[in-house]
Amino acid sequence: MQVQEFKTIKENISGQIVEKKSKFIANIFYVENEEEAENIIKQTRKKYYDARHNCYAYIVLAEEQRVIEKCSDDGEPSGTAGAPILAILKGNNLCNVLVIVTRYFGGILLGTGGLVRAYTGATESALEETEFIRVQMGVEAKVILSYDSVESFRYYAKKNSINIINEKYSDNVEFLIEISNEMLEKILKDIDNFFIKLTKIDILKEKTIKTNTTVQRDTREI
Question: Which terminus of the chain faces fewer neighbouring Cβ atoms within 10 Å, N or C?
Fold first, then answer.
């Protein structure tokens, strides 16, 4: 079964806690793919170059709608950092999200249980301040229409949550749009039934589309 929508964060956010003089800074990022996540990890390591550890976990939707999960303890005892962070992402049914928790060592050993609680607590502290939204699977498409159909299509796009990315005017009007798969089926039917007038529609590429629909943390799993 293909993924048609998932939950993610509305915007990047951070939070931190202090546990026995060690500071744990959690930075949470929205990412589109594995390459973007890895680049942010590299940048974060440079930013916090003087920290003892930069542990992370991420879940992203890859090509052919494969879900990729990855985590790292970055030198902490095995299973005490990356895995607990990943478990929180999975427990909240999040996707296209990267969490990096940076630790500045305070001189007191926390033990395995203490580390798990600290990395979990830092991640949760950031997520508590986060808004969650739906992301839908969709496409970027080019539609061509006549000048006398522009305003009616604008109205149709607004009514049906179709985002007009760009406009180009020549002999005809060319709109670049992004549209969910669900709405794509509707627009194709409406074209066939002459409910809207389009000269042509070309699907350019698949893409994920952020919506304005906020959701709770206890949503269904992917």
Answer: N
- pLDDT tens-digit profile of 56-66? 999 998 877 78
Residue carrying structure tokens 């739906």: 134
Q: Return the pLDDT at 220.
A: 41
Which amino acid is located at 110 in the chain?
A: L
Cα torsion through 4, 11, 211, 164, rounded to 10 = -120
Number of H helices, E strands in the chain: 5, 10
CATH number of domain containing 123 = 3.30.230.30
* CA 132 – CA 33 distance, rounded (Å): 18
Strands lying side by side in the sheet with 13-19: 13-19, 22-30, 97-104, 53-61, 67-72
The β-bridge partners of 179 are 139
Question: Residue ranges of the alpha helices (H) in the chain?
Answer: 34-47, 82-91, 111-127, 150-159, 181-192
Residues 6+ apart with CB under 8 A from 193: none
Residue after which a domain boundary falls, among 130, 164, 192: 130
How many distinct structural domains can be found in the chain?
2
135 Cβ contact partners less than 8 Å away, ≥ 6 residues apart: 5, 6, 7, 8, 95, 96, 208, 209, 210, 211
Q: Yes or no: say if 94 and 10 are a contact pair by the CB < 8 Å rule.
A: no
Residues 125 and 91 in one domain: yes
Give the model confidence (pLDDT) of 37-74 as tens digits: 999 999 999 999 999 999 999 999 887 778 999 999 99
- The residue behind tokens 């542990």 is 55
pLDDT at 8 over 80: yes
The first and second tokens of residue 97, run together, are: 């999200």
